[in-house]
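so my prof wants the structure for this chain in the tokens format not the other one, which i didnt know existed until like an hour ago. anyway here's the sequence
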Amino acid sequence: MNHHEYKKPLPIITDRSKPFWDAAKDKILQLPQCKNCQHIRAQFEDFCPKCGSELFEWKILSGHGTIWSHCVFYQKYFPEFEQDLPYGVVLVELDEGPKLISNIVHQEQTQLKVGLRVNAYFEDVTDEITLIKFTLSKNE
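here's what i got, hopefully its the right format
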């Protein structure tokens, strides 16, 4: 795949999210963990949503989780995704607690169901951006 021809929307990288995206390029999933209450969050806000602390550190996660919810899109809402129809969107609950919205790759989208085990899959879409998607666990 020619990375320079990627036509789908890309994340906007901020100073606060840059460590997340830098790690993804290295095939590592990491999220902010509160130094006060240890809550791991999937967002990059200034304060912990549990205790309000500003203190956090980046925690490397296993990349393993479970499909918590999912849906399949059959209609074209964005022209960039037309070639992928039907495509699935999943809410994955990581083993460490946080939930990420993403896609399942290398799998028939209509076969997805809540409770299936998944593993992080790192897709290099441009020279600068690696997206974190998921594959079904081979142990299913």
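also thought this was worth mentioning. The first helix runs from residue 18 to 25.
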